[in-house]
Write a structure and sequence with these properties.
The structure is a homodimer of 257-residue chains. Chain A is of the alpha+beta class and 257 residues long. The longest helix of chain A has 27 residues. Chain A is 44% helix and 19% strand. The two termini of chain A are 27 Å apart. Chain A folds into two domains: 116 residues, Jelly Rolls (Sandwich); 71 residues, Orthogonal Bundle (Arc Repressor Mutant, subunit A). Chain A is built from ten helices and ten strands. Chains A and B meet through β5, α5 and α10 of A and β5, α5 and α10 of B. Chain A binds a DNA duplex (30 and 30 nucleotides) through α8.
Chain lengths: 257, 257
DNA sequence: CGCCGTTTGTGCACAATTGCACAGACAGCC
DNA sequence: GGCTGTCTGTGCAATTGTGCACAAACGGCG
């Protein structure tokens, strides 16, 4: 059992935004787990029995695999949200696989418990509905982004998104993995990263990417990152933003998600 | 006021799948409207005060516009679903624009009415949650599809989707419009359509596309169309499928959506 | 019938991206 | 300190898609 105000619990913005009373309803049922990179939270077609709340710098992703084996990330979730049955909320089969991309601590909750608690608390219901709306917005934007924007811009966008969630300049990811997530060819992605490096936006290291000029990277990225972030701020900002309980990160570096 | 069993009302699969009792809760608040092609149901950023149920062969789309003016369709909704606040369900700002693509009758309902009715009926809540899950699945698949599949396959997929909703071989759409929806160049789309025509899958006419070999078109299309359709059948099939009230279409030609 | 605006067809240069092959570099481990 | 497996860099041909210009075809309307 986790204390209501445990840092772990507050390390997820959704959970952190709850009133102490609502948080107390969930806390007894939350299970802390450490997830490794690559760990599959649920597989496409499976019933989703747990909802996971990444905390700290843990990041998970919804991934769709095609018959030919190629995969793409279709949604990313960090400590700003939750993964699994966010929309369906029942015992429906998952449409996509969920994979841990950046290892770290996660809080798990049985889907059914969440359902019960939602029934009991309008504020909690409201919060999750708002998050679902944001998740959908993120995915809608990704559809458009993949249709219209060249890889370099999408790559820059993706780096920004990961940095927001990690809150660090150093992103532990290989070209290979990033290429898979973007759904592009590894060798071309290497060239793209090198191009970004030549523009002094990032530095490419073995197994990691270092952001050295965030502002310029934002300028290089497509507008999609900003559009989604703005929606999060509009819809969840008052709840998870500045007025939310402080997170264990240096204040000047806190971001919306 | 619309009678509970009016053909118009049953012409939307979601409304048609409701128990007569639940349908009676909504019916008094439904407003029938005729929509023209191009009509904007709501604009991005606006609060969504109405939810619209396309009936018959009316088709609407969620569209995202980029700063440079280019647009893409990010979700399509026909008589299998509903558009507007399906997920957010509250008075949150819409993330994307909603546009009528194929003119026809639509039933409108104030978002707030739907909220009230949901509060009163678990079955209705369940149905809408299921639909929201399917909508999300459709969008997730579109993210992957746009990332991985060449235009010809996506084009074939799109044609199948429209045909499902229209239930006709003849699709009233111009190259120009279709290119906008897919987010590709008109001149290239013309070539793509011609290629599909040369394979005897479709016939290209001025202002319309005629499907002449559905099966072969399905083979040419990417797997995405099938994957989404399967999810609809799994999640909504028992409700909106064969066991649902008959729709005014010839039985052999009925499709899942 | 003939005109006119819209829609479609096509040519061409070139940019973006794939696909594949292979060399080199790094980091951890024994 | 050297081996080994993973990760990164790069060369090159082929394909896919863009961007633009302009001609041709169609169909409704007066």
């Amino acid at each position: 059992m986790i204390p209501d105000d445990a840092p772990l619990l507050i390390g997820n913005l959704l959970l952190g935004a709850l009133q102490p009373r609502d948080r107390a309803l969930l806390a007894p049922h939350l299970e802390a787990r450490e997830c490794r990179r690559g760990e599959v939270l649920f597989e496409a077609g499976e019933d989703v029995s747990f909802i996971s709340f990444p905390t700290g710098s843990t990041v998970a992703a919804l991934v769709i695999a095609m018959r030919d084996g190629r995969t793409v990330e279709v949604a990313t979730v960090g400590h700003e949200g939750a993964i699994g049955g966010v929309v369906s909320q029942g015992s429906l089969p998952a449409f996509s696989r969920a994979v841990v991309q950046i290892a770290g601590p996660v809080l798990r909750l049985e889907t059914q418990r969440l359902q019960e608690t939602k029934a009991a608390s309008p504020a909690l219901r409201n919060l999750f509905t708002r998050y679902a709306d944001c998740l959908l917005a993120q995915v809608l934007q990704a559809v458009a982004c993949n249709a219209l924007h060249p890889i370099e811009e999408r790559c820059a966008r993706w780096i920004l998104g990961l940095q927001d969630r990690l809150d660090s300049e150093v992103l532990p990811i290989t070209h290979e993995l990033l290429a898979d997530l973007l759904g592009v060819q590894r060798s071309y992605l290497t060239r793209t990263l090198k191009s970004l490096q030549q523009q002094d936006l990032i530095q490419v290291r073995r197994g990691r990417i270092v952001v050295c000029n965030r502002a310029a990277l934002e300028a290089k990225a497509c507008e999609c990152h900003g559009a989604v972030k703005r929606h999060f701020e509009t819809v969840l900002g008052a709840l998870c933003g500045p007025s939310a309980p402080p997170v264990a990160l240096s204040p000047t570096r806190r971001r919306a998600f």
